[in-house]
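Re: your question from the hallway

Yes, I did run it. Sequences:
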Amino acid sequence: MQDAIALLSRVFGFSEFRPGQEEIVAAVAGGRNVLAIMPTGGGKSLCFQLPALMREGVTVVISPLIALMRDQVRGLREAGVVAGALTSGNTAEENDAVWAALEEGSLKLLYIAPERLASSGTERMLRRAGVSLIAVDEAHCVSQWGHDFRPDYLRIGELRRALDVPLAAFTATADAETREEIVARLFDGVPPESFLRGFDRPNLALAFDVKQNPRAQILSFAAARKGQSGIVYCGTRAKTETLAAALREAGHSACFYHGGMEAKDRRVVEGRFASEDGLIVVATIAFGMGVDKPDIRWVAHADLPKSIEGYYQEIGRAGRDGAPADTLTLFGPDDIRFRRSQIDEGLAPPERKEADHARLNALLGLAEALGCRRQVLLGYFGETAGPCGNCDLCAHPPEVFDATTPVRKALSAILRTGEWFGAGHLIDVLTGTATEKVRERGHDALPTYGVGTEFDKRGWQAVFRQMAAHDLVRPDPARHGALRMTEAARPILRGEAGITLRRDTIAKAPKSPQVKM
Ligand code: ADP
Ligand code: ZN
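Structure:
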């Protein structure tokens, strides 16, 4: 599926599949009939858009929502894909453009509203157009008992028979009756390949920890799992090498793996990992694509992954056999800074950067979660669940407190110093530390000077880290990383909203602000 990954990043700008997408894309691209049930927001559209690009000919997409179709067509065109829609709202020019693209065979995706299926011309036109796949969005609309019933959806089965091409049906509605009706009406009762797997991997224990002494933390996690196969993901190539050496010194069987190694050396590591018991591979995310070992017992992140999707995919390599597996993710203020600057300094267009920040925010929200991590993780992918009992926060509910007042103090320190300083200086101002820089700038005369009596420096560092995790502040690359307030912080500053933070991770903040491996 190398092909699919390349298209995923080139056309859609995503570096990883969301849970479940890869398997569905493979089945649809392979020309099988598919019924996929994915939670809302799970990323269904990609599961037919990507195969449409992988297949010859035109993919017809039937969707009940005109606004949604238009959005998707616009998005695809912006990504350079030839796509069009035939809906009641079309102008004559739009229709002409779609016909022309069909005639010359350049059209890859044709969205049509279900009403169109009622006109006799549509089927004839589609027969001539070289349709190779039918995708049905919101397939539950075919259910006469559901409240979204669309009579025109009943014609889709007929269209499939007439065109004799594979059909992929998507819905978020998972109840058994609806599924049966979809199979009966869209697939003539012949069960298609079905994807119903939720995102939950209950055998994976989830845990995060604030970086204190990261090397010691990883070593102790590995020591408790000696003799088990595991992966440690690191943010840099250099760190994979030093950490693998440290693990070996501690008596583990460990090797490193990163994209800077010769292909043949990487193959050696992959081969050893697959065949040996109890080997630890310390790697960058270059390690993973080809890893298909069912009994990986643990995955640790020595550095924060870059997005919640990346996190899910990386921890998901553990415990594929269904037996219990452990995960641990370390994070600290340096990680947040590093990941933010990676996004800001990248070459992606502004909207993409904004989306990458949002995906990082989701991960940071998970790192600083106040309750069950699995609920937060599944919630992000659109699934609801009760507390899992298999994460660190279920095992030890965190101590939280109303941090509205200290956060407002911190925000006011940021604003009163003109949004030109980093956390270190702001903490000096808050704690009333008359450094040279503070005196030079006259910041010892500010009303916020010395008001932060509730925490010491370490405590304030943890508050700033949590503020960054809640996306209340962001470093501005144009100002050497000075912290600036985000829109999300305004209601708190104005006293219109409060904020709860964790006290336990404040107590645990490292003594020195610079955390190095
Ligand atoms: P739905 O399943 O509700 O139809 P969409 O297809 O609209 O969901 O996707 C929901 C969101 O997820 C969109 O913003 C989309 O860009 C994003 N998305 C889909 N696939 C990925 C991916 N592999 N990585 C990151 N974001 C993705
Ligand atoms: Zn839990």
